[in-house]
Amino acid sequence: MAENAVFISSIEHSKPTIFEIWAEESFKSTLQQAFQLLCDFVRSKLPDETLGRSKVLRLFFENPDESFLIFNFLMQYTYLDWFSASFSESFYGMQRVNAKNPTERMNAKAKILSMLGLVGVPYLSVKIKAIIDRYVFATGQRQDTGVKLLQYYRVLSFSLRIVELYHYVSYLGGVAPYHSVLHRIAGVRLVHQNQPTPTWSDIYNLFSLEPRKSKLLGPLAFKVVSQSFEIGAFCLQFINWWNSSDSEALKFNRTPIPEVVESIDSGNVCPICLGPWKNEVALGTSGIVYCYSCILKAHSVTGKCPVTNLPFTMDDLIRLYPSAS
């Protein structure tokens, strides 16, 4: 009886709480945004001549989704291979094990399915949203198609939310060992890492005259790599927090007041192409109206308003619908 109680206690202790899982998923959802902010910062520091000469750099900065796809693939594959966990799961001290037998590590099939869930699903989700936005901002029949696609996407998103809620409740009640449908498909569950983490004081033992000092090389190498990724993740999170549009105080101190430009009011003319507006959109950071295709190109090149030079994102674009009269 006592032995069974000890066994149950150890199993429950190794199971992450729902709050730890929410924290891990929240951290994972900010990685692409932080990666994009870091790329924008690096690009702003590079001279135009360097970008003009290097085709690789142009492809990297002009295709942010594909760039993050490659980066995310390499990072997640490394962590799954070394730590049996994704980057965010390892950051919070979790690892993936066989759902039916927690004492077994992931097999090759589970790693492949895990990579599809960690890398493929987020990339497809971003691309589907971009396609829907492109259709919604179009005109005529393409816009009607975009509205229908948006409705279908909302229904699908709501259905996935229900499935996600079901797995959360099942995991919280102890009915299922996995908290998401992606973990169910991969046949894995999350547990706490039970191996002791090496400390920096072990470096002293590495240089001592102990006969088994070579055994510390592997754990210390993992320590260095893991610590480097953690510091990098903290820097990315800090950049994301610093540039967060939700922080009004930071936004007030960071965003300069645009200068008054006399040539803005020039009739129904786009300041970029100097022609009549086509699919006009207003830029929320400056209030200036552009053609959608023109401001889309400006965002891909500089990420700043061509008139006021203020930074903006695609979420700052406001679609305008002129009256029929």
What tags apply to this protein structure?
325 residues; mainly alpha; Herpes Virus-1; three-stranded antiparallel β-sheet; two-stranded antiparallel sheet; 14 helices; 6% strand; disordered N terminus; transmembrane helix
Compact summary:
With 325 residues, the chain is mainly alpha-helical. The chain has helices at residues 2-14, 18-29, 31-45, 48-53, 55-62, 64-83, 87-91, 108-136, 141-172, 181-186, 202-206, 217-242, 248-254, 292-301, and strands spanning 94-98, 188-192, 280-283, 289-291, 317-319. It is globular and about 70 Å long.
What does this structure look like?
- The chain has 325 residues and is mainly alpha-helical.
- It is 60% helix and 6% strand.
- The radius of gyration is 25 Å and the shape is globular.
- It folds into 2 domains: 2-195, no CATH class; 256-319, Zinc/RING finger domain, C3HC4 (zinc finger) (Herpes Virus-1, 2-Layer Sandwich), CATH 3.30.40.
- Helix 6 packs antiparallel against helix 8 (108-136).
- It is built from 14 helices and 5 strands.
Mean pLDDT level? 75
What can be said about the biggest beta sheet? Answer: 3 strands, antiparallel
Gyration radius, in Å: 25 Å
N-to-C series of helices and strands = HHHHHHHEHHHEHHHEEHE
Please give the number of β-strands: 5
Gross morphology is globular
Class from secondary-structure proportions = mainly alpha
Strand order across the largest sheet: 4-3-5
Number of helical segments? 14
- How many discrete structural domains? 2
Low-confidence stretches: 1-13, 209-214, 245-266
Through-space gap between termini: 82 Å
